[in-house]
Every structure is written in structure tokens, then in C-alpha cells.
Amino acid sequence: MSERFSTVVIGAGHAGLAASYFLSDRSIDHVVLERGDVANSWRRERWDSLRLLTPNFLSRLPGLRYEGPDPGGYMTAGEVTGFIGKFAEVARAPVRTGVNVMSVRLDGDGYRVTTSHGEIGCRAVVIASGACNTPVLPSFADMVPEPVEQLTPFDYRDPAKLPDGGVLVVGASATGVQLAAEIHRSGRPVTLSVGEHVRLPRTYRGRDVLWWMDASGVWDQRYDEVDDLSRARKLPSPQLVGTPERMTLDLNALTAMGVSLAGRWAAVRDGVALFSGGLRNVFSLADLKMNRLLGMFDEWAVREEVGPPERFEPTRVPEPARLRLDLRSGEVRAIVWATGFRPDYGWLGVPVTDVKGQLLHEGGVTASPGLYALGLPLLRRRRSTFICGIEDDAREVIGHLAGYLTQGASGTTGRPAVR
Fold first, then answer.
1. Is residue 244 part of a domain?
2. How many other C-beta atoms are found inside a 10 Å radius of the C-beta of residue 415?
3. Bridge partners, 118 (sequence order)
4. DSSP secondary-structure letter at 283?
5. 311 & 402 share domain
6. Which of 208, 214, 303, 348 is the most exposed place for a label (fewest CB within 10 A)?
7. Rounded to two decimals, what is the model's pTM?
8. Are 114 and 168 within one domain?
9. Which residues pair with 170 in a beta bridge?
10. Number of domains in the chain
11. Which has the closest alpha carbon to 374: 349, 341, 399?
12. What pLDDT does residue 417 have?
């Protein structure tokens, strides 16, 4: 084995770099392996118009805060790439770019990491390779008639690269609503297939809604305080978009533009897309959850100098709701699958994933001693998914890792507590 480190970090996005920051802070020797460049997913796997959902004043990483002229604005993908690149310099992270991790396997009391540039031995591994490595498509995607072009958000760049004609966008999370709006503005008819979603206004009582999530403490709820953690980790991203005018992009805004709504895409039969009914119930549930959250903000804000409480028009139900769409008719020339993503652990040769390939962990600590994760939804707190949520997560996970290494050095056994 050509090299050895105490710790190997896999991924040089903001999560992997935050791990490096705290490893260096504890003088733990390590290396950060990145298959592409620093912030690779923001460089290579984003559409052209994408902006960060969080306002700039919430853009913070260990030892680095946004200090630009537009704290209430939203970074472009290029600006996020630059911000993370600057963080790599601040953290003085020992990053090796262009290194593919082929496998991670148990090796004695540690791990053997096989890469495209050789093997590395280590006591601990931090998986920070991201939660959005592979787009998720339904099983019936291969039943779509061949003349219809199919894209995922990894393939999509801008509407000009789509074929002329109608577009079906599937999925109504942040990605789906943003792409539906952008494609419709290009002059193409758009139908949006809507399933479970999280509705939020862009601003509430004069403040960005994510300011409320941060300031009220909602984002600080810990993973071990959530009733149904598995479900909470699978919730779609909220219907938000970052624009200079801080517009709300919910389903009412889309229908006002002219986007048509259909229910959840359930099946394909003989080239016909079949959508489920029950949009009224889906909309009512999303509205109910939004109003509950706004009510929590109101209770917290009794002493805050903010505008008066607000409530928003219920989501309008299309009448009649569309249940069928003939994909052979030429009405739809392209489908954009905004149906979510999943991590890819095909290289992980340690038995810490479930039958669906999801990593099993408790607050980023797996059952395999010395194997950790960062950058996953609700890893330790509700803010974990966002850039501003990685600092506390990384500090605690690396603290746990440091305790594990110290135990090994002292010859003791057992595992330190997760908290």
C-alpha cells in the first residue's frame, strides 16, 4: 500500500471541505479525494440559470462568511463555485482532484481506499460525496415512446436546447417548479405533474422565509427529535427560487403564468401517460403544512419587529384535472424528470447501506467503526441540507471521529457516544 493517512475524506464540496477544516483544527492528518474539481457538482451538474435557494446572508462556512454587496440576493451556480473554492483556500484543504474512488473496504482495524491513482490505507473515512449523485426515474420511464426526448436536471441546461413543442415536467419540488417556469417563458407549452410537495412563500412578514427558519430555531431541530426521521429525510425540497425580486414560485404562480397542472404520474399504458386524481387533497395537505409552519413563526415573533401575520390563497385546483396525456400525439416533445436524486454508493464495499442503497447512520455515524458521513439531508439537524448547516454537523462528526482515533491510540475499545 503506497500511502497511509489517519483519515480519508471523499468529496471536495462544501461538506468534505468542512470536514477537512475541522480535521486540520484537530491536527489530524488526512487527504481529500475529489473525482473532478473542487465544487464539482456546482461546476458540472447545474443548469445555467440556477441560483442558491438561501439568501446570501445565510451563506456561511467555517471561517468564511458572505461579505459581498448583496446580502439579500441569491448566488448563481458560478458564484457558489467561487465561494466554495475560496473556502478550500481558507481551510487549506489537502485536496487531490481528478481522483476517482473505486472502492472502500475494511482492512484490519481500518480501511483500504482504492482509487484511480493507487491505494490508500486509513483508520477513518468521511463520505462527503453528496446526496444527489444519480437522478431518480420511475420504472416506467423506459415505456415512454421513443420520439419523446427525456432529460434529467443533469442533462438540462436551458430551454433553447429542448426540441420545439410541448414539455412535460415531472415533479413539483424546487427543481420542478423552477424548470417549469423557465421553459414556459421560452414560449413552450408546459404541463407540470405534481405529487407531494412543500409549499413556502419566498418572503413572510417582510423577511425571507429562510431567515425565519434560521432565526426561529426551526432549522436547529435535531435528527433525534424528529418523530418520523426516515420520512423527514425524504421530503422534497421546498418550492422556492432565488430571484432579484424575491418572487414566490408556488403552483398558483405557475398557473397564473399559463402552466398546466396534472396529478402524480402513475403509469404509462400504450404510450399514454396516466395521472392520479386527488390533486385537491395533495394541495390541501401542502397548504395545511405551510400554514402550520407560518403559525409557528408567528408564535416565535411576538417580540420581533416584523410586519403583521400573513396568510396566502389556497392552492387553486384545476377543473377538470387532467388524467391522461397521449405521448404519441406530438403534444409533448420532451419530458424533464425532476423526480429527485439519490446518492451513489456502488463503490462502498462496507455493509452499511439498506436494500435501497441508502446509507444507514445515526447523525453521520455508521455502524462500521471509523466510517462517517456528511452532507446528507437532516444528517444531524434540519438545516443539514443547506450550506449554512454544515459547520455544526462537521464539527460534531469530526469530534466523534477524533474520539474514535484517540480510543484506538490508547488501546481502548468501544465507541464514543453519537452526541
1. yes
2. 13
3. 115
4. H
5. no
6. 303
7. 0.94
8. no
9. 193, 337
10. 2
11. 399
12. 55
